[in-house]
Recover the amino acids of this structure.
């Protein structure tokens, strides 16, 4: 099986980065504790950009990422953060 990496570059709406970071950290901790296929979940807060957050996640395989994407806690995260996100770019690939 090939590990799958996911990078998500998030532009937050003005004034929402701290709230977004708090929520995504909670989400990441949940994923690591309850999704056996979630191997890593990192939240990067750029020093010089006040409206940007970068996520880096690693999953055991595509099935684990698909299970993550379709989970109820992912749906709740999407609902909770919808107003906090102005734009996002997602890149999925094999971990080399």
């Amino acid at each position: 099986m090939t590990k799958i990496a996911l990078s998500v570059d998030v532009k937050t709406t003005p004034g929402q980065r701290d709230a977004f970071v708090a929520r995504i950290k909670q989400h990441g901790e949940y994923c690591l504790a309850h999704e056996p296929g979630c191997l890593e979940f990192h939240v990067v807060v750029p020093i010089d950009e006040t409206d940007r957050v970068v996520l880096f996640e690693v999953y055991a395989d595509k099935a684990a990422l698909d299970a993550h994407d379709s989970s109820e806690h992912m749906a709740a995260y999407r609902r909770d953060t919808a107003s906090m996100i102005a734009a996002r770019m997602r890149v999925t690939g094999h971990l080399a």
Summary: The helical segments are 17-34, 62-69, 72-81. The mean pLDDT is 96. The beta strands are 4-12, 38-44, 52-59, 85-94. The chain has three helices and four strands.
